[in-house]
């Protein structure tokens, strides 16, 4: 587990990841950015009870996924996929963070996190690589991530996923920008016939929501770990359509320009909030507004949680978060 002093070191490194590749004209030096993202190959061998492999979803757009499968009974160095064949497994479609601009499923932080998530929840985790800003602005990430749901229903997906995957138990999850994406993909999916795929819930881990208004948490955290106010503003400018501000519906989902979603069928939502995250008040506003319009929402609040505390394995709370997510999934299936 990561101590607070180690988190500060990681914070400075991640600040460089989000700052150095940025050009003055608002573009990103993508090759330079890739140098900062410590990537790892998919491990087809059993590691921590989970195997992983990469699959191209759409070669033309560059959408691909890393699939994590809990496995047992695999001997020696065998790479043969032998999942828990005696039980049907739900699917967690996971969207990574990075401000819509950085990170990928093969970045070590996300490979390790999704491996732990798959093992703890006894679920197949499909971690999505979507096209990123500023090269691809809103709503590209939403459309790419929705396309993965359609791919899950295809014969191509059926051919590579374990036979005991249960598409009637699909959950959308993501952290930071990925949490934002999970919400918007659920909106895109509402009312569409994706059968046999059925969305059973959303897991929004410190979702990246915002608005033109400055919250107390944003203003009071003079030296927040992982993300600064300046960086958050830059991410929105990189992702949102030209001439938009942070009250755009992609950011401020209950803002002045947002659609009424009170009649939209949204499955139950779990929201993870950190007490040292400058985004916490936007996340709690989301919870309040969702409850007001009659949606089922649960909150897990971690007082000492910095932004990305789950991916960074912050002390004991990162493990507790995984336990809470597993419990949320279990309760949806009773």
Automatic annotation (TrEMBL):
Keyword annotations of the record: Signal
Domain Alpha/beta hydrolase fold-3: residue ranges: 92-309
PROSITE patterns the record matches: LIPASE_GDXG_SER (PS01174)
Family matches, as InterPro entries: AB_hydrolase_3, AB_hydrolase_fold, Carboxylest/Gibb_receptor, Lipase_GDXG_put_SER_AS
Domain of life according to the entry: Eukaryota
SUPFAM superfamilies from the UniProt entry: alpha/beta-Hydrolases (SSF53474)
GO MF annotation terms: hydrolase activity
Active site: residue positions: 176
Protein name as catalogued: Alpha/beta hydrolase fold-3 domain-containing protein
Taxonomy of the source species: Eukaryota, Viridiplantae, Streptophyta, Embryophyta, Bryophyta
Gene: LOC112295263
């Amino acid at each position: 587990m990561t101590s607070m002093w180690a988190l500060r070191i990681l914070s400075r490194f991640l600040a460089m990841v989000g700052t150095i590749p940025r050009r003055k004209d608002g573009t990103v030096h993508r090759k330079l950015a890739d140098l900062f993202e410590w990537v790892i190959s998919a491990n087809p061998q059993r590691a921590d009870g989970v195997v992983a492999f990469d699959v191209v979803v759409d070669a033309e757009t560059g959408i691909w996924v890393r699939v994590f499968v809990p496995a047992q009974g695999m001997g020696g160095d065998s790479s043969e996929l032998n999942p828990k064949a005696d039980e049907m497994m739900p699917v967690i479609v996971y969207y990574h963070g990075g401000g819509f601009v950085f990170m990928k499923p093969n970045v070590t932080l996300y490979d390790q996190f999704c491996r732990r998530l798959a093992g703890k929840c006894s679920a197949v985790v499909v971690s999505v690589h979507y096209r990123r800003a500023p090269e691809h602005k809103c709503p590209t990430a939403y459309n790419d991530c929705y396309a993965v749901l359609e791919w899950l229903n295809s014969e191509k997906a059926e051919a590579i996923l374990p036979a005991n995957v249960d598409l009637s138990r699909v959950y959308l999850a993501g952290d930071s920008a990925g949490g934002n994406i999970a919400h918007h993909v659920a909106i895109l999916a509402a009312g569409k016939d994706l059968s046999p795929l059925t969305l059973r819930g959303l897991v929004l881990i410190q979702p990246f929501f915002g608005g033109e208004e400055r919250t107390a948490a944003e203003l009071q955290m003079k030296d927040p770990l992982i993300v600064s106010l300046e960086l958050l503003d830059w991410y929105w400018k990189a992702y949102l359509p030209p001439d938009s501000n942070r009250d755009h519906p992609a950011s401020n989902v209950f803002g002045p320009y947002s659609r009424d979603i009170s009649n939209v069928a949204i499955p139950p939502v779990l929201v993870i909030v950190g007490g040292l995250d400058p985004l916490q008040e936007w996340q709690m506003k989301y919870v309040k507004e969702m409850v007001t319009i009659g949606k089922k929402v649960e909150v897990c609040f971690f007082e000492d949680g910095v932004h990305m505390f789950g991916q960074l394995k912050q002390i004991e709370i990162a493990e507790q978060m995984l336990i809470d997510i597993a419990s949320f999934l279990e309760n949806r299936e009773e």
